[in-house]
Design a protein that fits this description.
Largest sheet: 6 strands, mixed
CATH architecture: 3-Layer(aba) Sandwich
Bound molecules: guanosine-5'-triphosphate
Helix content: 25-40%
Strand order of the largest sheet: 2-3-1-4-5-6
Order of helices and strands: EHEEHEHHEHEHEEE
Number of domains: 1
Amino acid sequence: MAVLGQGQPALLVKVVMAGESCVGKTSIVRSYTEPGAPACSSSYLATIGIDFKVKPIMLNDTRVKLQIWDTAGQERFHTLSTSYFRGAQGFVLVYDITNMDSFQGITSWMKDIHEKAGDEVDVILLGNKCDKESERVVPKRKGEKLAWEHGIHFFETSAKDNVNIEDAFSLLTKEILEKVSSECAYCEEVTCRWTKQTFYVQQSNVLSKDHSCLFG
Ligand SMILES: Nc1nc2c(ncn2[C@@H]2O[C@H](COP(=O)(O)OP(=O)(O)OP(=O)(O)O)[C@@H](O)[C@H]2O)c(=O)[nH]1
């Protein structure tokens, strides 16, 4: 894998948040990208359409710019939300441990992800709101079993108390980087017809030879 130092441009990684409405997707993104600020508020404000945040991180000496797309979970936004799945390298798929319907919806979300983003994409499953133990209706072993059946990693998280959020994003990003370095599934090699210089094209991003985004 290309090792990018401080002075070098960052590798751009697109991650999409998915899951039913009100499971805590926005709060998880907030907890991760705005440390110190309250991730949860007493009033719930549904995501309308789509939003995104950027989080620069350093992982094993590689500079990464995580572009996190926060989709709306409400059914009326389903077509719009899933249209952002295409081209993503990773998904954070979330259910709420106090809401059985949100857990039962996970299989359908997995289907959407594979249909739109392919079978090779990395997914991590989060059972959120683990601070609400007294209201739990989804046992932890059910989440573990479902993740195991899909061959993906699993964490129980709390956006409110910032539990396991950083670990979840780090593990997902690590898996994505391993894939990019081993087979570069997302890049297409292009040679400039005038300068004969080689570039890699990843979606709309032009990447330099070491796969770091030139516009990073
Ligand atoms: N106790 C607790 N509440 C949480 C947690 N995460 C989110 N919430 C609350 O749950 C509600 C919904 O959170 P959001 O982050 O807006 O949920 P969402 O999945 O983005 O919802 P949509 O935008 O409709 O898709 C809010 O009132 C949050 O404050 C958590 O870890 N613990």
